[in-house]
Amino acid sequence: MSGSFEQRLGDLGEQRIQREVLQPRYGGTEGFGDDSAFLAKVDTPSELVATTDSCPTPVVNILREPDLFHAGWLLATINLSDLAAAGAEPLGLVVNYTLPKTTTVREFERLLDGVDACCHEHGTKVAGGDIRDGAGQLTATAIGRCAPGSRLRRSGAKAGDRLLLVGSPGYLWAAALLETGRATLPAAARDEIWQRACRPTAQLKAGQLLAGYARAAMDVSDGLFATVRTLGEANGLGAAVTGEFELDEPLAEVAAQCGLRPFDLAQTWGDWGLVAVVRTEDVKVVEKTLRAESVAVQEIGTLTEDKRLTEGTAPWRGIAQERFSASSWHGGELSTLLTEVLGV
Amino acid sequence: MSGSFEQRLGDLGEQRIQREVLQPRYGGTEGFGDDSAFLAKVDTPSELVATTDSCPTPVVNILREPDLFHAGWLLATINLSDLAAAGAEPLGLVVNYTLPKTTTVREFERLLDGVDACCHEHGTKVAGGDIRDGAGQLTATAIGRCAPGSRLRRSGAKAGDRLLLVGSPGYLWAAALLETGRATLPAAARDEIWQRACRPTAQLKAGQLLAGYARAAMDVSDGLFATVRTLGEANGLGAAVTGEFELDEPLAEVAAQCGLRPFDLAQTWGDWGLVAVVRTEDVKVVEKTLRAESVAVQEIGTLTEDKRLTEGTAPWRGIAQERFSASSWHGGELSTLLTEVLGV
To answer: Residue A277 forms beta bridges with which residues?
Structure first.
């Protein structure tokens, strides 16, 4: 391939892309090149689930020089995160790339590197896919299995159940605060935050541990407020959050420098945590089980008969992004969004 | 909903689209609204397959007033057709729509009607999906299961194996010839061709019947030539086609009026047939089995040690469309393509 990385996909054409880029990478995958990708052989009774999501422009690609690696990584994570919310084990990912003809082989390889690295990190793989030319769009579908009866849903919760936030929120938006000069940290801490922001992971292990314990679950794709509100609506309930949250140490420092409460940063998105709904009597054992597997978890509140969303004694004024609206993140500018979202 | 069909998705916003359009239609589907869609419970050992494809602009939407119903129908068919080529039984479809904010509710409902009608026709359903605003793109993923060991692949064929064309080719391009005035037929015949062109079906039943009999299979998505060439390449073989084909009666008439041989029209795409590779000794029983289920099938040639593609005694000069190239259909104009493809 040496010397050909600067070639454009439109110069190669579909057959050479297949032969020179995809075959060397995926040729060993059973089913490569067939009309349908092979996911897995399943021998035990299973509930099968699937989820599909397209990748927005990664925030990190706005903060620094864009790299399709990050888009590829994010594409896999956002889909695997939905499997995590179902408590499912992933069987594979199928990808669907629409790319401009002007995309270079180097850029394309970075995209594939990102998706493959993320899949590897999560113990799964790209099983197959499709590619076509057009305005850029990256879509994937993740397929998974659950043991019968263990599948987590948004519904199934009762008033009084506790809300657990699984994962470590705040890395992406802390990175944004650091990159835009709103906070400063020593280089090592800043680098670590940047790396975490570039490589968010799905809570697959946590989801599988929660299956059977949790009454409901949902991933945090549009921020904590939107997630809790949706979980409440799915169960005809409201929620009371405490507004307290212990951020990872360097994030707490970033928040403090920006005059933000830890809970403000904990409400942001991009870190692909889960909100799990757990019976009061199960909270301790769930927390212990997750922490034993090095999964971060904190109780953040309670589902309530009262359909309002409250933080402490006041209405919870959270952040929510909505598609097909003027405030849609997908149409937003980082500079204004940081102010809108975090008031800084 | 009365009176609101002319509203635009951008005026509704994501939440109202969910509540007013998607919930009434899909609210009864288990898993609707969850992070992951529920596909099926599988109780017997299975090989699971998946395929993903985006929908090009349907040719019928260029020939007459565009209707998103046709795009929805086609989106489902092209994905189910890949399952058919694997001999799989469909478990469900997950859809991923990127639509402009200016899309009206009426247009969106037509799209959903088309996908749902096609899924129903094929005995499957939309299990879930995602929607976002942006430049229009319709993508879907179909997931299916095969009995262990029965899954059809492109590879597995031997020289001397016979090529069977399953399905009735030529409807889409006959419609194009009729609509552009290159041929004329009585209204009833013309209507029937138009209907078939608008509602191509995937050969799911045929694929499942072929599983276990056929040595290899592939669907005809880019024309017969490209399909046979790819099947040959996947097996290190060439092919000798006879160049003879018996079209359905009204299509034969269209071909004749245009000075085309039946085999010319049989080489076009858009009708989602399969090419199945079958051992010589199995041809009769396969043909009988398929015809007993009202599936059209004709032998078209033989795979050969000689890697060339021949038609009769001459090289086969077929039609192939290739993505990421100047001749890509997705960038083509119907008026020039009819001439390029069929020479008329």
So the answer is: A163, A216
